[in-house]
Amino acid sequence: MPFSIPEIELMEPGHTACHGCGATLAMRYVLKGMGDHTVVSVPAACWAVIPGAMPNRTLDVPMVYTPFAATGAVISGLRGALDIQGNKDWNVVGFAGDGGTADIGLQSLSGAMERGHNVFYIMYDNEAYMNTGVQRSGSTPYGAETTTTPVGKERNFKKQQKKVVADLMMAQGVPYVATATIAYPEDLIRKIENAKKINGPKFIQILSPCPTGWYYPPEKSVEISRLAVQSGIFPLFEYSNGIMKVTKPSKPVSIREYLSMQKRFAHLNNNDIESIQKGVDERMDFLLSKEREGKTLNKSSQ
Q1: 235-271, pLDDT tens digit by residue?
Q2: What is the pTM of this model?
Q3: How many CB atoms lie within 10 A of CB 140?
Q4: Domain spans of the chain, in order of start
Q5: Among residues 125, 115, 117, 65, which one has the least CA distance to residue 90?
Q6: Which ranges of 96-245 does DSSP label H, i.e. alpha helix?
Q7: Which of the four, 70, 98, 118, 159, has the lowest number of CB atoms within 10 Å?
Q8: What gap in Å lies between CA 113 and CA 66, rounded to an integer?
């Protein structure tokens, strides 16, 4: 049966994000999947300013602003309070960037997941601290130039690999973990709806391109997001109760096509690109092996 995107709109016009901001589309699609019985917790991040200056805001759901490191703790408290009130049908969503998730908020996130609260943690991944000046985060990919990893004569781009928080969540035993991106809204919303069926913690990492920090024309956000999937640098998968499902690119492209559209990678040479391509291939092989393991486990348990 064809999947139809819900018509409900819980994000109004008038946000203050940069042109082409992927994080705004991420929020819009997440709320379409969640519905109006949703409360959103937002830490210090781009989305702390995107809704607009008080008393105005662009979302038609309750919002709670939190300190940078506290998203996991706050959604735990919100869940407990709503349950005591008898509002168990409300969705509690932490919506945090990669800086507030992969780095500053990682301990709080891990605690919330370990306690097993029935909450959603959405990481909108724009791969740097964009709100404060494009500083590198743990989620910034290898090879990227940021304001704290300037290339210069020493080629001092980011030398560490991207920290994939979704993998950390799977290792911790979170019952539902997925990746998504704004180029495929049907896939993203479907994953939200699948996650809602699980009573327990849910984590979804959404690639959200940033024209300001990735240095590309703002009208290219969806195209770049699509290329991230087709090149394999950001593979889409869904991990539900131990079973992995990987979305294989329908039109594979080389990693060079993705990298060439962003000035933050303009300094990379052929050896750098070949190294990144090798890592991408190894990553996909790893995910497909996890998918095969899950199928074998599922078959043996029947």
Answers
A1: 999 999 999 999 999 889 999 999 999 999 999 999 9
A2: 0.95
A3: 30
A4: 22-300
A5: 117
A6: 106-115, 165-172, 185-196, 211-214, 221-230
A7: 159
A8: 18
Q: Stretch 142-150: mean pLDDT, rounded?
A: 97
Separation CA 26–CA 138 (nearest Å): 20
The strand order across the sheet containing 38-43 reads 63-66, 38-43, 91-97, 120-125, 202-207, 176-181, 236-240, 243-247
The answer, yes or no, to whether residue 29 has pLDDT greater than 90, is yes
- Cβ-contact 116, 65 below 8 angstroms: no
**Amino acid code (one letter) for 94:** G
How far apart CA 238 and CA 203 sit, in angstroms, is 10
Looking at domain 22-300, which CATH architecture does it have?
3-Layer(aba) Sandwich (3.40)
Q: With both helix axes pointing from N to C terminus, report the angle between 71-84 and 106-115 in degrees, rounded to the nearest 10.
A: 30
pLDDT for 289 beyond 70: yes
What span, in angstroms and rounded, lies between the C-alpha atoms of 99 and 104?
A: 6
Element (H, E) at 196: helix 185-196
Residue holding tokens 């979170």?
A: 174
Contact 174, 113 (CB under 8 A): yes
Residue appearing with tokens 């495929």: 184
The rounded distance, in Å, linking the Cα atoms of 299 and 302 is: 6
Give the chain's largest Cα–Cα span: 61
Mean of pLDDT values over 217-227: 98
Rounded to whole angstroms, the Cα distance separating 177 from 241 reads: 9
Count of C-beta atoms within a 10 Å radius of residue 133 = 12
Residue in 98, 107, 203, 179 with CA at minimum distance from that of residue 141: 98
Give the integer Cα–Cα distance in Å for 258 and 265.
Answer: 10
Instruction: Determine the Cα–Cα distance for residues 284 and 69; give it in Å rounded to an integer.
Output: 31
